Amino acid sequence: AVAAALAEHGPFDGLLGFSQGAALAAMVCALRARGDPRFPVSFAVLVAAFASRAPAHGHFYREPIALPTLHVVGDTDAVIAAPLSRELAQCFVEPVVLTHPGGHFIPAAPAQKKAYLEFLERFCPGQGQ
Fold this sequence. Notes:
129 residues, Rossmann fold, four-stranded parallel beta sheet, globular, FSH-like_dom, hydrolase, AB_hydrolase_fold, Esterase OVCA2, LovG
């Protein structure tokens, strides 16, 4: 379903996932990093993400995921505890981790906006990538 949505509504440069959507986006990143042509994305922003604990999903995390990612972690997130998000970030090659003092939401204060822009600028045309 994700591949069909990307094909129908794309192309997309990257993914943004929140909570369960971020868990799914992380699995899509793993497939993309392995060369799956159904998911032609260059990066992902994963907010309040976590690794799926389903045994059938274990293969997504066995190899380091070589796709640029920004992981947004709420220090006081009571839904997806910060250690779960940090654990997922460690599955990626050179993840960028942005922490904020809040909970289970997408932070939009000036400091976070600056971090989002700095991460996304890496993927703008004419920026070397």
